[in-house]
Amino acid sequence: MPSLQAAKIRISPPSYTKIPESESEDLNVKAIAGSLLHWRVYFDQPAHVTVRLANSRGEEMPFKWQHAAFEYADKLAGSGLYSIKAFWKDSLIHQSDFYRLEAIPDLAPKIEPASKELYQYHLLKDEKTLKISARIADDFVVSQAFIVATVARGAGENVKFREVKFPLSVNFKSANFTKSIHLDELNFAPGDELYYYWAAIDNRRPEPNFSKSDTYFLVYKDTAQVEESQLATMAVNLVPEYFRSQRQIIIDTEKLIARRKKLAKQEFNSTSNEIGFDQKVLRLRYGQYLGEEFETSIGGGQHEEGDMVDAFTHHSDGSGEGAEQRIAEPVHDHGNEHKAGEAEDPLAALMEQYTHAHDDAETNTFYEQSTRSLLKMALEQMWQSELHLRMYEPEKALPFENKALEYLKTAQQKARAYVKKSGYDPPPIKEQEKRLTGEMKDLSQELSTEQIFKDQRMQQLASEMLGHLEPSKADKNRHSKMRQLAGLLSGRLIDSGPLHGGMQNWPVITSLQKLAGGRPLSAGENRELKAALYRYAGKSQQSGPAYSSDQKLEAAFRRRLR
Question: Is the pTM value of this prediction over 0.90?
């Protein structure tokens, strides 16, 4: 029967790392991600022999017979476990232990600026030269390093940006840099803002790693402008009292309703009427945005202010002076209108089709139809609110006021213009500091349930395995449970990676694979495996009475399994 003579592996790191190739008989691999791995396996009688490479998930890849050996080549993309299996006429003649595959990532360049203050002010008396320094290093070579500075000028939507790149150096491993940025060359003036950050690109292929520092802010303080804190101390009311917003009208109405019992009737009615006047002024102001330049056409109103109550009330008896005036009111004489139209100048009638009608809300505004509809509905709600306020019914006016505010906010959101604040990308997340520091409350319930189930399953399997370490206590399910536990640990190892504590699972997985294959463990391996199983089971390994209770627990597990 054929037998294994030798097995070798050749590791060829990426060319940009300039690390020489290496060949070893130790099949545990620890190399840079992207390295080319080339296995060569020798058998004394290679006829009818097939060799396969199997990973921890049970996937297998065949070796090829060439150059008097079985060869297989692949690129190292991630960490994991693998073993080599050999078959002779469909019979398994060799199965190796699990070997480690550890992929060392090519890290992005590391940037350490000397300054820790991210936000600074620049005054008129300060120096016009900004001196900054930083240390930039990479595990291999930094192919390019530079500083990106952006000057922002203006306010509101009239903001202009100017971006400048300052190259530092190329092709170095580690260096300290000091850079002087002349603010006069950037035309840095009072009121401007300067954003800058350090950036570096390494020589990784085919796609290089990019790294950038935090963004630093330098604000040129404009002493000529009056700050809001100074305006607050002035004894001048710069905003007219009648210039109210819809939200302020709602607040005033709610205050009036709360003080109803404390105010006299005359004072209450007067305050309600004043709030109604504020609502009217606001309605007129928003009506101008729709091109309604006359009060009688704004918000659906067709009545004079003095007749506002009469316009919204119903006189069923038809009596009174106002009713007689409405009954005696003449109707439109379409015949007279037709005659007046004939007397018009034909040229004026023709030009009317192409001129701007100031009193037409549909033609003299550039708002889209949906926005105009929202504003019209807001004006209608303001009209109803004003009616009830003038009738001294603020409780009935409040729902219309809230509805008007809702329509105004919706219209504002639809017609808003977005202006980008600046032209730089946010700094990358510091993974080493932020990893595993967040809260789980925002994760999906399904993911949390799956993780809890895996942890409970691992704890259960580890507890059951504590009673099956000795061969005399083994049963028919022993190997199956060992493979299940090894699979759970392998998944956690692959998910976490070697940089986050996954390495500690490998000796446990190797020992479990040995037991599953019927091979004995050494005393040291048995001790380490037992200590790890206690840790995964959530128990502490003790001696004396506590250890006897653990033995009772193991016996209970064995009875349940029978």
Answer: no
pLDDT at 81: 85
Nearest to 378 by CA among 228, 247, 190, 511: 247
Q: Report pLDDT for 331.
A: 40
| The predicted structure's pLDDT at residue 97 | 82
Rounded CA-CA distance 38/10 in Å is 5
CA distances from 369 to 86, 177, 361, 414 (A): 75, 58, 11, 11
Long-range Cβ pairs for the range 510-514 (8 Å, 24+): 510/97, 510/98, 512/482, 512/483, 512/485, 512/486, 513/83, 513/97, 513/98, 513/482, 513/486, 514/97
Pairing of strands 119-122, 216-220: parallel
Tokens read off for 370 = 């949906």
Q: Residues 6 or more apart from 503 whose CB is under 8 A from it?
A: 102
Please provide residue 176's backbone torsions phi and psi, each rounded to the nearest 5 degrees: -105, 130
Omega prior to 190 cis, within 30 of 0:
no
d(Cα 506, Cα 374) in Å, to the nearest integer?
A: 65
pLDDT under 70 in the chain at which residues?
156-157, 223-244, 289, 291-370, 413-427, 440-448, 467-506, 516-518, 539-562
Instruction: Give the distance, in angstroms, between the CA of residue 101 and the centroid of all CA atoms in the same chain.
Output: 33
Residue 522 sits at the vertex; the CA angle it makes with 519 and 526, to the nearest 5 degrees, is 95
DSSP string, 84-153: EEEEETTEEEEEPPPEEEEEEP-PPPEEEES----EEEE-TTS-SEEEEEEEEEEEEEEEEEEEEEEEEE
